[in-house]
Amino acid sequence: MKVGFLVNPYAGSGGRIGRKGSDDLRVENPEIPFRVKRFLNLAPKVKYFVPRGKMGEVYFRGTDFDYEVIDAGRDNSTREDTIASVKILQDVVDVITFVGGDGTARDVAGALTRDLPILGIPAGVKMHSGVFATTPEAAARILSDFVQGNARVVKAEVLDVDEEEYRRGNFVVKLFFVVSTISSGNLLTPSKEEYSSSNADDISEFVIDMMEDNVYYVMGPGKTVKSIEERLGYSTNFLSTDLFLGKRLIKAGISYFDLISLTGELKVILSPIGGQGFLIGRGNQEIGPEVLKRVGKKGIIVVSSREKLRSIDCLRIDTGDPEVDKLLQGVYNVIVGYNEFMPVKTCSNT
After folding, report:
1. Which residues of the chain have pLDDT under 50?
2. Fold held by 2-183
3. Alpha carbons 75 and 262: distance in angstroms, whole number
């Protein structure tokens, strides 16, 4: 088995600062090396083909992996380097794995000239496409199962959005490609789906009745949570993460660094992504691991329509820190109406 492996060092760099995308940022994401390490710690020991420098080679130096550097890639890479790397890799490997987000998935899929499976190791901000594993560890498990003949090759959508419109709160998603990927168990993330929140008023009323004046509330993105903010008299960006003290808006469009400097009691109000089931780690990276460690599972309030919950089998969590992921595992009583709940368990990440 021969595996292609490439990295977009800039993927996800906008997430912690609330940018909702990284396509126009030329800042390396400092979390990329840790995500690569998490993948390689469990990845199968097969032959890997990697681009030069930070696009792959640096992560294999000094390891016991069997790898070969291809004639493509560089440290200060662009999407053209990704495309050039894929054009070489597709002729010599059985599957291409890549570290990045939806933009990287588009570049990888667009460069293919034959039906070759691709698998995303999640490191972007949006990741609406259906080619991503839930976590780096899950990607390693899927690849191992593929090597052993225990994974399925399936078709998946590569989706992306206009980031400028996305930041303005306009969610316009486009289908760019349908490609082959590999799947095992529930470790591959489905594509995002949109659902209406028919009982948003009842959910909003119940949450507002529970809110305390001396508690900070971090309001995540999405229609259901924004309905709560609208009921309080505020109109914020549909995709922003906002900070309230009691029922009063303190700051719209907060960053991870805003949150880690807060003192006082803190709770988080979130709604899972339809179809995917992600509660944490997709589109709300401002709520990072240090914040969530402080909040704990009991401090997370989950809201959703019943229709959306029926589209997911479990809640997915990818904080960026596997230890924090474990702390947040369990069953959440999701608010689906006024004093009405549906229990939903979290997915296993391995």
Report:
1. 22
2. Rossmann fold (3.40.50)
3. 36
